[in-house]
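Good morning N.,

You mentioned wanting to compare the apo and holo forms, so I went ahead and generated the holo version with NAP. This is what I fed in:
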Amino acid sequence: MENHTTRPHHVAIVGSGPSGFYAAAALLDAGAPDVRVDMFDRLATPWGLVRAGVAPDHPKIKSVSSQYTKTAAREGFRFFGHVCLGSGPTDVTREELLERYDAVIYAVGSQTERRLRIPGEDLRGSIASVDFVGWYNGHPDFVDLEPPLDTERAVVIGAGNVALDVARMLLLPEADLRATDTADHALEALAASSVREALVCGRRGPVEAAFTTTELRELSDIDDLTVVVDPEQVPAGIADSEGLAKGTRRNLEILRGFAEAGPDASAPHRMEFRFLRSPVEIRGDGRVEEIVLGINRLETGEDGRVRAVDTGERETVPTGLVLRAVGYRGLALPGLPFDEATGTVPHTEGRVDSREREYVVGWIKRGPTGIIGTNKKDANETVRHVVEDLTTRAPREHSPDEVEAWLRDRCPDLVDQQGWEAIDAHERGRGDPTGRPRVKVVDRDELVKLSRG
Ligand code: NAP
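and this is what came out, ligand included:
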């Protein structure tokens, strides 16, 4: 047998978002054993939520992509876009990957939404934030969403950062939007939108809200926007209550500041926070016309968690657009165990339970929580075990060239690293004349054409 120390190990990473890239960097950093990384994405373009999730008016957050570009330029790294894990004729299966690679790391994120399970949830005009975010970010799956923006008031369900992102995107001044890489179809629709108000509803109180302070604070810097909070929901002194975490205290100070300032009736746009409200029913004839909110009180359970309890009181709010921003959810991967309750793959420090040579990182590992940087530590933990396991095994026989030939044969629209760089250069070039970071290409065929130069 060939001395296996002379051949590199070959690791597949399925998914090219932050957790996938941090895993790739950690593997290449590990140095020993010698490791090659192939990263796959079902889209032509890499970077996952950094391209298709982070709000376009947050270019600083998106700039983390420069780290991923550096990783992609390292020796031993290859990107293969338009490679989908599945069972279709142009898909690759999990078994085929396991046959060709020494280890497979799944970095597929949380690709779907948590459901509200209330009547009217699927009426036209009731939209999951995961779809709306994909739409304004030019994710090819959501280009045709056509959210109805012919309504003055939108209601956003959820009190997390995604709720803030979607509410802000609806209310940003047109000039601010036009400076971003918002997909052109969304830019034109948002510029023509009738939405003047976004009502952001949290089912628990302001203390329990999941917003981060930077995201709340930046609202006061947005032109033409008044932020409205009922002073009774954030009474004076609330930020001084005992036992509050620093972030919560700061959030409460900001919310209290909005409450004290009061609404500016002359502002063209209005964002209102309403706490202790749960969606009960969405009503309308063929499309959303109103939402019924249940009014809650808070109760602390035996486990110490503060829960929302329905008081039975109701409030009806006329609206043509409901955005459901109540969290993302992972999808089961064929052949892998799946925990339905958490929407994640069961694992022990990244090693998939009851499987060999299969690992998870990111949201499919720990659920949809944390900021981009959280994925670094998370990926390092998994990669530590991948490296440990690789050192105990001889590498597979398949050479990287054989694997590439097989992939190109199976996936006719494959986009490699060079192809992605051609797309990237084209998009940036289109943005230059108007000072935009890029103008995104959203059509699959056009992306393939561009990738071939
Ligand atoms: P999230 O932070 O978990 O917030 C989800 C919100 O939905 C919570 O307020 C939750 O309330 C509420 N909710 C859940 N089920 C509900 C129901 N059935 N009815 C009403 N409300 C419900 O999730 P996210 O906003 O999707 O964000 C995901 C992750 O990405 C977070 O870690 C977030 O910080 C991060 N992110 C960061 C940025 C940024 O840094 N700028 C931007 C976007 C996202 P309860 O607390 O009562 O469950």
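The CA atoms of residues 88 and 410 lie 10 Å apart.

Happy to go through it together on a call whenever suits you.

Best,
F.
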